[in-house]
Design brief:
The chain is α+β, with helices and mostly antiparallel strands. The chain folds into two domains: about 40 residues; about 110 residues, Immunoglobulin-like (Sandwich), CATH 2.60.40. About 25% of the residues lie in helices and about 40% in strands. The chain is built from three helices and nine strands; from the N terminus they run H-H-E-E-E-H-E-E-E-E-E-E.
């Protein structure tokens, strides 16, 4: 009888431990404490330009005022045009008053039919109401991409 009680207590402890440690918890919803943080994180929309047999997709990845650099993911695809442009010479970021040249291009070197990388700019302060990224010289076209803050 003593052996049966011990086995029962051990089985009960095992089941209780299993339920405590492996019980799936429902996904928590944002609380008031962290909803303010979630509001400051902004997802930026990808913009696509399809002209002259070249598709250019641009997605801002970091445009926060706290950031030391503003970054734009750029993807270029074609089957008929050579993508041999120096991206730091063909891109410019504009606000209402000024133009800003990129600091650098981090990505595929000039050439080929498929390129991707990141255009890096200094942040614009104070924050503008909108920005425009203009890329010229790819298949002799001007491509503009706009975002509102």
């Amino acid at each position: 009888m003593n052996k049966a009680i011990t086995t029962f207590v051990l089985a009960l402890a095992f089941i209780g431990g299993f339920l405590i440690f492996y019980n799936p918890k429902p996904a928590s919803s944002p609380t008031e404490n962290n909803s303010e943080t979630l509001d400051t994180i902004q997802k930026w929309e990808s913009k696509i330009d399809e002209q002259a047999s070249v598709t250019v997709t641009v997605t801002p990845s970091d445009l926060s005022l706290e950031s030391k650099e503003w970054k734009f993911d750029v993807v270029l695809n074609t089957h008929s045009v050579e993508l041999d442009q120096d991206m730091t010479n063909v891109a410019v970021l504009m606000d209402d008053d000024k133009e800003y040249k990129p600091l650098r291009w981090e990505g595929a070197p000039a050439g080929g039919h498929h390129r991707e990388g990141v255009l890096v700019f200094s942040p614009i302060t104070p924050a503008p109401k909108s920005i425009e990224l203009k890329i010229t010289g790819i298949a002799d076209t001007v491509r503009t991409f706009n975002w509102q803050f």
